[in-house]
Each structure stands twice: as C-alpha cells, then as structure tokens.
Amino acid sequence: MDGESVAKLSTAKWAVIWLSLMFAFAFTLVFYITFMWIYF
C-alpha cells in the first residue's frame, strides 16, 4: 500500500469514528429529553 491509500483509509476511519460519536451523542440527548419529558 502506498501513502495515499493509507491516508484515505485513515480519513475514512476517523470519519466513521466521528459519525458514531455524533450518533451516540444525539441518541443519548433524545433519550434524556424523552425521559425528562415523561417523568417530569
């Protein structure tokens, strides 16, 4: 593998990591708001 392929792979990896982090954060936020709305 040459340097360019490694760089693309690394960028894709970080994109997936950021995407999963944002998804987890959004899910937690929605869950928290729903929980608060139902119980309070």
Can you characterise this structure?
With 40 residues, the protein is mainly α. The chain has one domain (1-40). It has one helix and no strands. The protein has one helix spanning 3-39. It is rod-shaped. It starts with a helix and ends with a helix.
Order of helices and strands: H
What is the mean pLDDT? 91
Shape: rod-shaped
Q: Can you count the beta strands? A: 0
The computed structural class is mainly alpha
C-alpha Rg (nearest Å): 17 Å
Distance between the termini: 56 Å
Number of helices: 1
Task: State the helical fraction.
Answer: over 70%
How much of the polypeptide forms β-strand, as a percent range? under 5%
Q: Sheet bearing the most strands, described? A: none
Structurally, how many domains make up the residues? Answer: 1
- Uncertain parts: none
Short overview:
The chain crosses the membrane at residues 15-39. This protein has 40 residues and is mostly helical. Helix content is 92%, strand content 0%.
Show the helix and strand layout.
Elements: H1 3-39
Short descriptors:
mainly alpha, rod-shaped
